[in-house]
Write a structure and sequence with these properties.
With 333 residues, the protein is α+β, with helices and mostly antiparallel strands. 36% of the residues lie in helices and 21% in strands. A seven-stranded mixed β-sheet has the order 1-2-5-6-7-8-9. A five-stranded mixed β-sheet has the order 10-11-12-13-14, with no helix packed on it. A three-stranded antiparallel β-sheet has the order 15-17-16. α5 (110-122) packs antiparallel against α6. The protein is globular, with a radius of gyration of 20 Å. It binds zinc ion (2 copies).
Length: 333
């Protein structure tokens, strides 16, 4: 059952089968020339049928959907894009940084797989786990009907839908081209996966997201801090009120995690694999995870370790093709 957020603006609910997230929450925005949908769902028959049923409840036909904006190209947000475009010809719009991932992740992943293998080895993954971890994202490809975007955003645009005007906020961190949509007059923000009420989104360093993703993520949280917001509308879980309070909690979560990782390294040297398999994650221990979750734990660990390198707390030591992290002692470096 769709939830009316503001006059004519609805939150839909599309299930993500066999996944702990449970569902994705697309938003339907009315406009002068038809509807805009923000985010979609996995490309499964159940998800498509659920989306169709939600629209039917509102007496909205697919051919009335003129645009699909995607907060980022993860399968649960972008998966149905190709299908929706096929059904109604909606224009697909994403951030320009996300466009770069479509071909290499969903159509021609061979080179990316090679890069992932050498990156896992470099970060200490033992040989017996290697293939499982390397290939762990491949089953996800079947949940994506990939399509090239018809237009891209850069952040900073104002999208005038008539009744509602949304400002596009580029919020890299969870994904390099993640975007949020802010309605200043109505004081609502669509946060995608950037800010969720209880879950902290995965922030990863991996071959397609180098640099300092955790630094980017924390800066992206800070960008939302000054906004006047009454309702936060995320893409998972549920809507909530206190944006600033949640931003603080997420920052504190990462600060604790950074401390835990420094404690694991202690006075020794450790690979990202060593650290990821030693700390206790909110969702369990490394050994209890699926290969996909283990890889996510390693890339999330790396995002934190790289942040600590940038902060001058750690440095990298490369020996025999393996990268280890070591504390910079006071007065050193
Ligand atoms: Zn995501
Ligand atoms: Zn998501």
């Amino acid at each position: 059952m769709p939830t009316e957020i503001l006059s004519g603006l609805y939150q839909l609910k599309v299930p993500i089968p066999d996944n702990p997230l449970g569902w994705v929450l697309p938003y339907l925005i009315p406009g002068d020339d038809g509807y805009t949908l923000i985010d979609s769902g996995w490309n499964t028959p159940e998800a498509f049928a659920a989306l169709e049923a939600e629209l039917q409840e509102l007496n909205v036909r697919f051919d009335q959907i003129k645009r699909l904006f995607v907060t980022h190209v993860h399968p649960d947000h972008y998966g149905l894009a190709g299908r929706i475009k096929e059904v109604c010809g909606a224009r697909v719009v994403i951030h320009q940084r996300e466009r770069d991932f479509i071909r290499s992740r969903y159509w021609q992943p061979e080179q990316l797989l090679e890069r992932i293998a050498s990156w896992l080895t470099e970060n200490g993954v033992p040989r017996d786990e290697m293939t499982d971890l390397q290939l762990s994202s491949m089953p996800m490809r079947s949940y994506v009907a990939a399509v090239e975007p018809d237009a891209v955003l850069w952040g900073g645009e104002t999208l005038d839908f008539g009744l509602y005007k949304f400002e596009v906020y580029w919020t890299p961190g969870h994904s390099p081209g993640h975007i949020c949509f802010y309605e200043r007059t109505q004081r609502i923000i669509l946060t995608g996966d950037h800010v969720l009420p209880t879950i902290t989104p995965n922030v990863s360093l991996h071959p397609q997201q180098m640099g300092n993703p955790l630094g980017d993520y924390l800066a992206s949280l800070q960008r939302l801090e000054p906004l006047e917001v009454d309702d936060v509308l995320p893409a998972h879980e549920y809507a909530f009120k206190d944006l600033r309070g949640r931003l603080r909690e997420i920052v504190e979560h990462h600060e604790r995690r950074l401390e835990e990782m420094l404690a694991v390294i202690g006075e020794g040297r450790a690979t990202a694999y060593d650290v990821a398999s030693s700390i206790v994650w909110t969702t369990g221990t490394y050994d209890s995870f699926s290969p996909w979750m283990r890889r996510a734990a390693i890339s999330e660990t790396l995002a934190h370790l790289e942040y600590l390198v940038q902060e001058g707390k750690l440095h990298q030591v490369r020996e025999d093709g393996v990268v280890r992290y070591e504390r910079i002692r006071d007065g050193e470096g």
